[in-house]
UniProtKB/TrEMBL annotation:
One of its GO terms (biological process) is developmental process. Belongs to the class I-like SAM-binding methyltransferase superfamily. Cation-dependent O-methyltransferase family. CDD domains: AdoMet_MTases (cd02440). Its EC number is 2.1.1.6. The gene is Comt. Binds 1 Mg(2+) ion per subunit. Mg(2+) binds at D160, D188, N189. It holds the Pfam family Methyltransf_3. It is an enzyme of class 2 (transferase). This is catechol O-methyltransferase. Its cofactor is Mg(2+).
Amino acid sequence: GTAAIIWNEIIREKITNFIMNQSKEQRILDFVLQNAVRGDPCSVVDTIDKYCSEKEWAMNVGDEKGLILDKTVEEVNPSVALELGTYCGYSAVRIARLLKAGAHLLTVEFNPEFAAIAKQMIEFAGVQDKVKLLEGPSEEIIPQLKKKYEVDTLDFVFLDHWKDRYAPDTILLQECNLLRKGSVLLADNIIVPGAPEFLKYIRNNPRFQCTNYPSHLEYMKVVDAMEKAVFLG
């Protein structure tokens, strides 16, 4: 799995970027702008899946694990959701399309180039009223959520950023009193590339009730999984 990511993310991508003089993320956006239906989030999600399964691999949550994400969001029915790791905006659009009226998603992206792509993707999908994109490192933004962004507590958190930040950011969410009894965390890529510290932390913590969802790495046959953790207060 790691070898496949290295091939797709580093070697193949660098060659293509050099030849085409643009980033893979820009190519994904261009494909969506040319082929998806404006204002239709499902069309945007399907078009990204089509590009990434047929043309170039990318680190979205993808179609298979996306169904686990959908099911979790529908079960939680959050008023306030947080996503760590926006990338191209795929999962932000995927989550936003399921949010009830008046609900909103805060999505955090460290890379300014990815954030710029995601903003356009979110707007094209027509979900910009439900999504607020926050640029910067998660460890700086999480402590600002209450005062600066008027968040009381979070109903749902999707972790899909740097895997070594999963555990410290989960601890930070608790320290900042952003989790309430029943808050749900869902973490992607817990096998590939893997988040062992996070799994060790939540599975051995009596304040969390964990469920594992076996799946596959996005757009591949490589074994991966997602982990759901319900905060018990």
